[in-house]
Amino acid sequence: MATTPAPPQAPPKPTWDPRKPQPPFPWLRPTIRIRLTLLYGGMFLIAGILLLSIIYLLAAQAISTGNQPLFKIVGGTDIKVTSDNCPAITAINSTRLPLSDFNDVIAHCVDQQRQGALDNLLSRSLLALLGLAVIAFAFGYAMAGRVLSPLGRITRTARQVAGSDLSRRIELDGPDDELKELADTFDDMLERLQRAFTAQQRFVGNASHELRTPLAINRTLLEVHLSDPDAPVELQQLGKTLLATNERSEQLVEGLLLLARSDNQIVERKPVDLAEVASQAVDQVHAEAEAKGVSVRGERRPAVVQGNGVLLERIALNLVQNAVRYNVPEAGWVEVSTQVEHGHAVLTVSNTGPVVPAYEIDNLFEPFRRLRTERTGSDKGVGLGLSIVRSVTRAHGGHILAEPREGGGLVMRVTLPV
């Protein structure tokens, strides 16, 4: 049987974990609100520094008269000057200095007082600017939060829609600005998506009925003809072939419908123990495993998750069936285990089998895609098993990781939130 040719480029990796790890310090994340706050506060700080520099220069120019003193003593006898802020003036009273030196000492003291006044003005202004900067940053943070609150509302609605709740709407009130226009556009998009999703659900329901009915009728007719003991051997052989083909078509239809339904989030969730689900899957494939000489083992510890029991059972059943069917001809084994690790329920299915190249693993999760090795056998499935597993896993908020096992076979690891 001809194999499916490989695509020109690899498809997106299906084992990607959609949940982003949380940063160690979430409050340091450069959000728009933080950036706007820094912008507002930074602009105020720059403007304050410029204003303070201008005031300082104007004040220095106003109280300064250049190098000339404000006054001079030109004559007189027995002149005494005292000052508490300038001890040098008091010291010269006990000495006989020329008037020029006496005037120089007074000018020096006046310059010191002028510089002290400017330094005092600068220090007090810097303290005032620092206090106003703190107030400006706080005010900017509050105003940025108020301005961006509609975006937070839009984000919360988008997250609710991501949970398959398409009935949610933003319905933003307030002025007719750009944010309201964005919210109204988003509401219109949700309305169209809801109509499209409803139409898809209706189509899936109709297709389920229209496709299952003729296949069920064909199966019944074939089984009736095969039950006739007088039917020729050739007719019985043809009937068995057609019955197998019809069964394969039924599996294909069921797989497609399940794949279409499981692409959405699970709305109704109930506690489901993965250990019980895995045990049921092992029981269902027990006869097939014995027929192929494959032993099934593994420790299944309790691992309760919130989800749909039927879909979770489909995950385990598909993985165990694949592990049994794609195994070595002799002395093969399949190990099925469940446990709880780091707050997540983990289902692990590993098996012996043919060597799987690492670059081929991505293709296993694509619909109707198989490896170019033993997995191309048409009697082993319709090529939707792992696609359904990935779709159902994502619908439950989990992810699946596939790794080639050393010596042949695969290790499938499904991680689901508890």
TrEMBL record:
Tell me which EC number(s) this protein carries: 2.7.13.3
Chain ranges of the Histidine kinase domain: 206-418
Q: What class of enzyme is it?
A: transferase
Q: Where in the cell is it found?
A: Cell membrane; Membrane
* Domain HAMP: residue ranges: 145-198
Answer yes or no on keyword rRNA-binding. no
**Transmembrane segments in this chain: where?**
38-59, 126-144
**Region annotated Disordered, chain positions:** 1-22
Catalyzed reaction equations? ATP + protein L-histidine = ADP + protein N-phospho-L-histidine
Q: Which Gene3D superfamilies match?
A: 1.10.287.130, 6.10.340.10, Histidine kinase-like ATPase, C-terminal domain
**In terms of domain of life, where is this protein from?**
Bacteria
Q: Name one GO molecular function term.
A: phosphorelay sensor kinase activity
GO terms for cellular component: plasma membrane
* Coiled-coil segments on the chain, per record: none
The entry's keywords: Kinase, Membrane, Phosphoprotein, Transferase, Transmembrane, Transmembrane helix, Two-component regulatory system
- Pfam families (alphabetical): HAMP, HATPase_c, HisKA
Annotated membrane topology is: Multi-pass membrane protein
**Protein name listed in UniProt:** histidine kinase
* Organism name: Streptomyces actinomycinicus
